[in-house]
Amino acid sequence: MKLMLRFSAFCVLFAFSLLHQNQLYASTTYNVYDGNAKIENFILNKQYAEAISFCNKELSKDSSQKLSRFYLINKMRLFLKQKQSLDSVPVLYYKQKSLKSSVDSLDVFLNARSFEIFGHYNFVKGDKTKAIKNLHRADSLYNYTTSYVYRVYNLDMLGTMYKLNYNLPDAYTVLKKAKAYLIKYIPNDSSLFIDVNNDLGIVAISLEKHEEALTYYSSITSYKLSVKQKVQILNNLGIIYIEKQDYKKSLEHLNFALTVSENIDGIFNKYYAQIYNNIATAYEQLKKPTDSVLYFYDKSLHLKKIMNDTAGIVISCFNMANYAFNSGNFKEAEQRLNEALKLKKHFLYKDLANTYLILYYISQNKKEYEKSIEYLQLHYNYNDTIKQLENASKISMVQASIAMEANENLIKLLEKEQKIIEVENSKKEVIIISLSIIGFVFTLVLAFLANYFYKRQRMENRIRNRDVRLASVSSLLKGQEEERQRISKELHDSVGSNLAIINAQILKSISGDNANYLTSLISKTSEEIRNISHDLMPSTINKFGLIEALSDLKERWNATSKLIIDVNFTPTDIKLNPTVELTLYRILQELLKNSVTHGCADYALINITKNNEELKLIYEDNGTGFCYKESKNKGLGFSNIENRVSYLHGEMKIIEQEKGVKIIFTFRQQHNENSNR
Known about the structure:
Layout: H1 2-44, H2 48-59, H3 65-82, H4 88-98, H5 105-124, H6 128-142, H7 148-164, H8 168-185, H9 190-206, H10 210-218, H11 227-243, H12 247-262, H13 269-285, H14 290-306, H15 310-326, H16 330-341, H17 349-365, H18 369-509, H19 513-536, H20 539-544, H21 546-560, E1 564-570, H22 578-597, E2 603-610, E3 615-621, H23 628-631, H24 636-647, E4 650-655, E5 661-667
Parallel strand pairs: 1-2
Antiparallel strand pairs: 2-3, 3-5, 4-5
Helix pairs in contact: 1-2, 1-3, 1-18, 2-3, 3-4, 3-5, 4-5, 5-6, 5-7, 6-7, 7-8, 7-9, 8-9, 9-10, 9-11, 10-11, 11-12, 11-13, 12-13, 13-14, 14-15, 15-16, 16-17, 17-18, 18-19, 18-24, 21-22, 22-24
């Protein structure tokens, strides 16, 4: 008997240890979400030093290795954003890689994130090849997560790397892939939508896909753009119309770009240099006077020299030389080309080939035949180099494709193996837990049988009473909403129409000050009826959801009182079940009314956060505060709030403080957009 008791106790303890591991994983995931939200808030306010201090504080705690990896990776990111301690980035990268943790979805995400940030570091250090390699690794791992924002951002960065590495076909393919994910999974992220379409437009111009480039730019012109984005897009539109040989339209966009940039402090030398160069090109094609063409070429070259933009200097010198050559000014052309050749290492092979071809013709004209033969040979040599590089690039692309496919197959194989292990472990857990329960019941059934039935009866009674109470609350709330809807409709359709008829009759039969006074009074009454109707049944929440409804509520409170309301959503595109949205809206309506009428508050803060486990609503104001026990006797307001919280199976915690009030609502039942009650 003693041996059986010991065995049962061992089984129970082992089962509880397995359950504890599952709870630990859930806790780690929540801590990652919470820590990420805090870090993002620091970054939004550009408080990088504070964010690094927060990471160091969390790393000093005795946390899991997975959580430590998360904060080490974020420190890498913060060093890059702060543009300080860059040499610490690889140290942190290898340190987080050395931490061992179980393979799961969170681990896959952290691996992807570390590759992505290390790729950014490689780019900052000027190694675009390593940057591309690490960003590819990140994308192959993001493919097995639901972190779509991170994946699109990573693909956009990868496309930019390909573009800077002059691999335009791959840049175009990657950016198109980023746009497809953007539209499918996060269509409301306007910031990413602008960046991806802008980058696609730039690559499309380089690939001479001018109509496609126009489509990309036209899709973002209606968005709220920064001055920098406006100038860049207008400049690129100028380039497109130059390529389409519509030089007048090109000049319209380029001159508008100069006008836009003049309205801000500071000078965008980079964009001014490009704009001046493009204006000179358009002038050249329109056969404008030579002085005008050279004026803008010189301004562009001057700015590039200020910025020490060697590649840009080469392009400007080549453009000026080409213009001089076409104008018959061979001396000027030769002088500009020789100036450019001092920076020969910054030339593209294509431009070098063209440079030596022009020098060949100039030498022929000057009857310097030995030089002309030398230049012609250099022209052919660089042309051959271009062909060899194109062939090598094609081979490299095929090899990279094969390597990527092999990596993806390996990852899939590892995932299958992991799933098999997880299934086997689940079976073992079930068997062990079952054995422990059987042993526990076998040894204690006689002693606790009566107590078991007694507790079961009490639990059934509690559940039955709770279900009855919830059904009553549900019916009450449903009846309230139906009555609100009916009264709102009657006020809007019947009373509103009658007031309009009365107003018309007054205007028809009475004139003078009395008529003006009565019509003014009727207009105010109609406005009051519309406000009451909107409070009873807000149309915004049915049409556009909770985010827009709270924005509308915030504006109406700001217009009619001194109350300032601050509303934050995490994530920013929260979507909930319509019943949940309406219930939360009613709770917030009641709280705001109490803050103004009872608390005399002039500021209220609303934070709504949602993750896979729970929905949390935090409400704060700076009013006079109140005693929770006393507030129950003040009327139906708080009773309505409590009923609505119970209806959503939630919890409400009131934190008493000297000034103002803070209430935390937590809902752990289903609250997703498609969930039903």
